[in-house]
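Subject: design request, 336 residues
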């Protein structure tokens, strides 16, 4: 039996109120969930620069995750090591010049008070268009004899020992700078033909520096090699920490010693024409975790806003776990 006409309005109001009372908890829960989700998204942001990732490109990876207490990652078989700066986690990484263009996965995991969180991303690696160059050098540098082979093997052993160790923290500060005041070439990535044979991919940038031009440190770090090598000639390698190195080759004179700390702009020596060369110039290379990166792109990467003095992988004032990276123990060698 339907309620009397006079009571229908009151009945409708009571029914509506009853429904609202049942819906209110759900509405509050939905609103709280949406707000928390929006806040979490606002507190988490991911950037990679340059945004278009090419073969040979250095990349600055930044993750904003306020709730994270540590951050770790892996990309293309290389370990990513982050340091903390003003609520952001930062890693300087890159793509080797010999990497095949592909769709890659950048694995990133953050440790938070509520457990691990995954920030992995898909990163498309685009081709970079490098040219082929032809050079003529002394035959011993293309087909070395038994004595030269011994020198090459000894140099390879030294470099393997150098690159197996790196400072467990970033030593660089701000932007990288060109090591000489001389015009650069676009030689990075060039497929090089020596005396008509494909011998190598050029993994550095050549500067047209006259013999005797002052060569300076492109950023702060520790000199881990300062000696002559077979192909490189008189060579200086600087460890900038966390697997990042710069290599300068073909010096006529070396003015630093192994184990010496250098700041940006410090004199390393004088350019020349030692090693496998066709004339005086400076070969400058950038290496990160066994990957050779385009030096020109590193010079254009804005790092001035990044304070690399923060402790890697941990929040400030948090005790650091013992590093798995061994320290340099290469004995100093006399420089020319």
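Subject: RE: design request

Done. Sequence follows.
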């Amino acid at each position: 039996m339907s309620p009397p006409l006079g009571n229908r309005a009151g009945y409708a109001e009571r029914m509506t109120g009853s429904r609202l009372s049942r819906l209110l908890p759900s509405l509050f829960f939905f609103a709280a969930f949406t707000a928390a989700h929006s806040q979490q998204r606002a507190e988490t942001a991911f950037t990679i620069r340059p945004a278009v990732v090419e073969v040979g490109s250095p990349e600055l990876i930044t993750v904003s995750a306020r709730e994270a207490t540590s951050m770790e990652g892996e990309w293309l078989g290389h370990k990513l090591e982050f340091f903390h700066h003003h609520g952001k986690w930062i890693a300087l990484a890159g793509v080797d010049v010999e990497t095949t263009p592909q769709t890659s996965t950048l694995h990133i995991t953050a440790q938070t008070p509520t457990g691990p969180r995954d920030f992995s991303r898909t990163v498309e690696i685009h081709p970079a268009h490098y040219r082929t160059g032809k050079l003529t050098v002394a035959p011993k540098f293309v087909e070395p004899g038994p004595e030269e082979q011994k020198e090459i093997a000894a140099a390879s052993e030294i470099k393997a020992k150098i690159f197996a160790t790196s400072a467990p923290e970033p030593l660089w500060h701000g932007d990288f700078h060109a090591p000489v005041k001389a015009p650069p070439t676009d030689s990075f990535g060039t497929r090089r033909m020596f005396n008509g044979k494909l011998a190598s991919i050029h993994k550095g940038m050549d500067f047209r520096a006259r013999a005797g031009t002052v060569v300076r440190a492109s950023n702060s770090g520790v000199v881990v090699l300062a000696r002559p090598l077979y192909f490189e000639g008189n060579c200086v390698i600087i460890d900038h920490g966390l697997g990042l190195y710069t290599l300068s080759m073909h010096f006529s004179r070396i003015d630093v010693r192994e184990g010496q700390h250098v700041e940006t702009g410090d004199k390393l020596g004088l350019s020349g024409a030692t090693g496998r060369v066709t004339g005086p110039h400076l070969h400058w290379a950038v290496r990160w975790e066994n990957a050779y990166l385009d030096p020109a792109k590193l010079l254009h990467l804005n790092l001035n806003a990044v304070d690399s003095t923060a402790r890697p992988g941990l929040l400030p004032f948090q005790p650091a776990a013992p590093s798995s990276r061994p320290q340099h123990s290469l004995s100093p060698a006399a420089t020319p």
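The chain has a mean pLDDT of 81.
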